Amino acid sequence: MSSKKALIRRPSPRLAEGLVTHIERAVVDPARALEQWHAYATTLRAHGWETVEVDPADDCPDGVFVEDAVVMFRNVALIARPGAESRRPETIAVEHTVAELGASVNWVWTPGTLDGGDVLKIGDSVYVGRGGRTNADGVRQLRAAFEPLGARVIAVPVSKVLHLKSAVTALPDGTVIGYEPLLNPELTTLFPRLLAVPEESGAHVVLLGGAKLLIAASAPRSAELLADLGYEPVPVDISEYEKLEGCVTCLSVRLRDLYT
């Protein structure tokens, strides 16, 4: 059994109807999006990740962004309660999948809202974006679920982007990367090590293991910067998902601690 599993969910035929909040709507090509999704999954597998496909949610246009449905810390899964009401049915199949994989399952209850894309984990520090999709009660419930496990939960204001991880992610050494025009002033002082990248999509990386970083093909200058720092960028084309404010982190949930 692989110790590295990644939850994925194939895009809905209604993907083009997905929500858009901070950018202008653009035409999405569902056929190309499906090809890109397959390539994304293939890339994960090529770097040692066993992909676990969550049952499709064809009536949920945004269901492919599976990261928003659940937050993992150690062996505990916190089932999200998305801030957009239309996205709440997405969590049902995700809950079943993580339970079958052996996770201990908790839930966010009303009036709390929480999107997984608002949660950035760096070691035992769990940063939670407090903004349009995640509210104060969602932060409180996440704190109640994870602090007894040793997490240090830090709430972060987010206003210029959809989710916290739309603004920043972290490198393997804990350095936070972000695109400065989209950072709240508080973010620039919150993180002790913050590296500015030259492209918006360059602020999003998935840690594949070792020095390898999954990054959007739309961020070649950021990839070059990271390569100069000794990392190995692995580009993947997700252009159809970027039209819906998606990024490389949104399309999977990486699980490690269930099997260590």
List the helices and strands and how they pair.
Elements: E1 5-8, H1 30-46, E2 50-53, E3 70-73, E4 76-79, H2 91-100, E5 104-107, E6 119-122, E7 125-130, H3 136-146, E8 152-157, H4 164-167, E9 168-170, E10 176-178, H5 185-190, E11 194-196, E12 205-209, E13 212-216, H6 220-228, E14 232-236, H7 239-242, E15 253-255
Parallel strand pairs: 1-2, 4-5, 7-8, 10-11, 13-14
Antiparallel strand pairs: 1-15, 3-4, 6-7, 9-10, 12-13
What would you say about this model in short?
This protein has helices spanning 30-46, 91-100, 136-146, 164-167, 185-190, 220-228, 239-242, and strands spanning 5-8, 50-53, 70-73, 76-79, 104-107, 119-122, 125-130, 152-157, 168-170, 176-178, 194-196, 205-209, 212-216, 232-236, 253-255. It is α/β, with parallel strands linked by helices.
Q: What would you say this structure looks like, in words?
A:
The chain is an alpha/beta fold. It has a single domain (5-259), classed as L-arginine/glycine Amidinotransferase, Chain A. Helices cover 23% and strands 24% of the residues. It has 7 helices and 15 strands. The strands form 5 sheets. A 3-stranded mixed β-sheet has the order 2-1-15, with helices on one face. A 3-stranded mixed β-sheet has the order 3-4-5, with helices on both faces. A hairpin with a 2-residue loop joins strand 12 and strand 13 (212-216).
